Structures are given as C-alpha cells and as structure tokens.
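Reminder to self: tokens first, then the designed residues, so the page reads top to bottom the way the pipeline ran.
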C-alpha cells in the first residue's frame, strides 16, 4: 500500500493545471509534473521490477508519433521552433509507456481508479461552487466566468482548475470509469449510491462547462450503452437516444465552429402575430483558425510547415478580411494556438505526423476495444477504449496530445490484462 501512495498522489494531482513555474523554452510546470518525477523516483528506488518485462509493441508504437514529429521538424526546417512540441510528445509517450508497463494488482488498480474519481469529484465540486458564487452572488473568479466572447459574454461556464475545454475532456475519463465501477457487480449499496451521485455531478458540471468537447462524453456514454446489457440497465435502455444525441451534438459542433450563432434574438410581431428568430451568421474565429491549418497542409502536405510554427504562418495563411470580419476579430499579430489536434498536426506536421498519431491511436483502439474470450463486452479496458473514441472526437475542437491525464488514463487500461479484470 505504501508503494501505491506516489501513484495515487500523481493521479490526484493531474487535474491541477495551476502553473508552479516555467522551464526554458516556455514549458509550464504543473503540480502533476512534480508529482510524476517524485513518483518515478520512488518506483525506481523501491519496485523497479514492476516495470518488467518490457513490452516491445508498446515501446515501438509509442516511438512512432515521436519519430514522425522529429521527421517533420527536420524535413520542414522548423529548427528550434519544433523543440517544445518534440519534448511534449516525448513526455506524453513516456507517461503512456510507464503506466502501460507498471504492473498493478486488481485491487491496486481499483484504488487508483477510486483516487481518480475522488480527484474528479473535488474538481467538479470546486467548479460547481464557483458557478453558484458567480451566478447567485456576482462573485469574480477564474474558476467560473462569463468571459467567453463566443457565447456573447453572457453565459457563465465552469472552468474549475482546468479551463472549460480541458475540464470537459477530463470529465470523459471520470464518467467512463465511474460507469465501469457502477457496472461491476461487487460494489456495496453505499458504494453504488456514491458512484451514482458522482456520475450525476460529473454530467452536470460537464454540461455547465458549455464547451464543444462535451460531445466526447455523450459519444462515450452512447458506446458504453451498447455494451451495458445486464450491467447498467438504465444506460442500456437509453442507448439509442444517446446515439442520436451524440450525432446531433457532432452536427451542432460543426455549426458553431463555422458560424458564431450567438447571440440568438427572438422577435415577436404583435400585429402579424408571428415570432421570428435571428441567428448570428458571422464567421466564427475557430473557422478562420482551422482554415489556416488546412492551408498550411495544402502548402506542404507531406511534412507540413513544421511543428510549433502555426503562429509564424497564421497571418500568411489568412487574409486581413477574414481576420477582421470573424468573431471575435483577430489582432494583426501572430496567433499561436491551432485549437485542434487534428487540424493543427495536419498543418504543422502533414501526412507524416498525422500518420504517426493515427498509428498510435489505431493500435490503442485495437488493444482496448478487442474483446478477449475470457471477458464479456463490459470491461474496464473496453470502456476505456470507448472513452478514447470520445476524446479523439473532442480532438477536433482542442489540443489533446499534451494532456498527461489522457495518457495516464490510457496507460492504466493498456496495462490491464484481460484475465485481471473482475468484471
């Protein structure tokens, strides 16, 4: 149990993105980075044998996206601009490899998952309290605010300790594992009550984050619904409705990415007894950002224009008219964030880098979704794979490849052998 504490502390620090400092090159040091270094030191000092035997498939597939980014950087001539991205990818792959290799017993893994859910509940409660304080008492806090210009500056949304988009993606992981434990036949009556309360909390807070990656949660729940027969009867009954809701959210996500939509105005004509609705069709700033990424890809389809160079090419790849007429408008200066894993890597890394990520994600989906003869369709490993599908869809709306909680989430599931599952 003592050997598990460093891992528990690391897992519970993952949703804390408050910066502790900055390294040369602009890398922000978060609490989880410090906790990871401490955890690694304790593991190497006390239980290094748990990392062996090495798994060649995990090692090889983890090197594929890293190698692809390096090739793109060298071929495009990105130079030093690519170094932060190379380091971030290397760090993420190391986290994935560590947890895929580190051998935990079934009971230890369940304790880690419980720690993950406790951390998620704390983060959700912090965000919900902040939301009530802002809406009910007019408080000013970064934990919840109405600072989104895309929502007209009128809608309060929860950010908690992560920011709205990252919070929504983090809640995909908590929701998936909460459902996995709820479907386990072993929890006590009080345990089930707590899990149901936690699930409700996660879903409410995700909804109040008011951000496009919410679609990832609905997609994951819909997929899990089709595997939930005999385990989660309610989810099984609403699986088709969830699938339709997921499809509608995907379409809505495309619409609000292209056009601003808000504010929506309703106008009533008393004389003619009609009600009309006016929708803001001004081009959304996200559409301009993604157009810049796609133009970068067109300029150099094979290797892109170079990792870390989006800001250098943004003004070149967009017109003054596009930047001026979008909402919100862009200042005449470089814009650094592509706001999408898929569009961003397409523009910066081309087919080579996109292919590298597709190899990794394809392998992960194959490992996680594959149903072993010794297990049923409802297992922790397979549910994690369904959660990954939701996360990958959210990757169209945000950058996901640098998020350590995602790679920890996936690594813990990859390291779980089918015969170890108590489900």
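Designed residues (423 positions):
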């Amino acid at each position: 149990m003592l050997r598990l504490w460093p891992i528990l502390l690391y897992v519970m620090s993952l949703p804390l993105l408050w910066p502790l400092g900055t390294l040369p090159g602009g890398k922000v040091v978060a609490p989880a980075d410090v906790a990871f270094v401490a955890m690694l030191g304790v593991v190497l000092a006390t239980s290094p044998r748990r990392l062996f035997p090495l798994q060649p498939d995990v090692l090889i597939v983890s090197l594929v996206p890293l190698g692809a980014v390096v090739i793109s950087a060298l071929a495009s001539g990105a130079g030093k601009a690519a170094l932060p991205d190379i380091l971030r990818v290397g760090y993420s792959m190391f986290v994935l490899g560590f947890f895929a290799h580190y051998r935990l017993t079934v009971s230890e893994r369940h304790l880690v998952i419980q720690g993950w859910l406790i951390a998620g509940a704390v983060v959700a409660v912090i965000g919900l309290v902040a939301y009530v304080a802002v809406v009910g008492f007019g408080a000013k806090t970064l934990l919840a605010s109405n600072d989104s210009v895309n929502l007209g500056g009128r809608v309060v949304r929860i950010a908690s300790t992560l920011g709205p988009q990252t919070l929504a993606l983090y809640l995909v992981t908590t929701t998936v594992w909460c459902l996995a434990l709820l479907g386990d036949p072993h929890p006590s009556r009080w345990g089930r009550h707590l899990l149901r309360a936690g699930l409700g909390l996660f879903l409410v807070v995700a909804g109040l984050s008011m951000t496009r990656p919410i679609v990832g949660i609905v997609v994951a729940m819909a997929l899990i619904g089709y595997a939930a027969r005999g385990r989660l009867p309610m989810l099984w009954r609403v699986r088709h409705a969830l699938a339709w809701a997921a499809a509608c959210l995907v379409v809505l996500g495309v619409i609000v990415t292209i056009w601003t939509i808000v504010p929506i105005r309703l106008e009533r004509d008393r004389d003619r007894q009609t009600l009309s609705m006016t929708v803001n069709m001004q081009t959304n700033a996200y559409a301009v950002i993604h157009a810049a990424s796609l133009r970068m890809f067109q300029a150099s389809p094979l290797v892109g224009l170079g990792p870390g160079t989006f800001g250098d090419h943004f003004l070149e790849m967009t017109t003054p008219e596009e930047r001026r007429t979008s909402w919100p408008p862009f200042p005449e200066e470089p814009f650094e964030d592509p706001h999408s894993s898929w569009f961003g890597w397409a523009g910066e890394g081309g087919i080579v880098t996109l292919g590298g990520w597709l190899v990794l994600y394809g392998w992960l989906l194959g490992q996680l979704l594959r149903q072993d003869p010794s297990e049923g369709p409802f297992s922790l490993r397979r549910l994690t794979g369904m959660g990954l599908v939701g996360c990958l869809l959210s990757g169209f709306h945000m950058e996901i490849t640098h998020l350590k909680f995602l790679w920890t989430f996936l690594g813990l599931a990859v390291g779980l052998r089918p015969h170890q599952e108590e489900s």
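The chain has a mean pLDDT of 92.
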